[in-house]
Design goal:
5 helices; two-stranded antiparallel ribbon; alpha+beta
Length: about 110
């Protein structure tokens, strides 16, 4: 379930608003998007994956909201960790088993 949009990292691009399949977020002109319908979150990680600045945290507990602290998430390396794990985004390590470029390339090159 989506638990955090970091106000210190967010660049207000609203990609999270656009990619969310269940319309969990509300766009705020000139501000950080708002988690408006948290209970509708399907824990699909699309918001966290598409966030270009690792400002999102989706907790893996799909149906239970958990209290999170941004500083603790940063210190533990969890803020943006899913995106890093799958190798998504500029500057990310390629070759992860979840990296679609790697999977497609391997399929055609053998």
């Amino acid at each position: 379930m989506i638990e955090l949009i970091s106000p210190t990292r967010c660049i207000e691009c609203n990609l999270c608003v656009k990619v969310c399949p269940t319309n969990v977020f509300d766009e705020v002109r000139g501000g950080v998007p708002v988690i408006a319908r948290q209970e509708d979150c399907q824990t699909c990680y699309q918001c966290e994956i598409h966030c270009p600045v690792d400002a999102m945290y989706v907790a893996p507990e799909a149906e239970v909201s958990v209290a999170v602290d941004e500083n603790e998430l940063i210190a533990s390396g969890l803020l943006g960790s899913y995106r890093k794990e799958i190798g998504w985004g500029k500057g990310r390590e390629r070759g992860s088993k979840f990296d679609t470029t790697y999977l497609v390339t391997r399929q055609f090159r053998g």
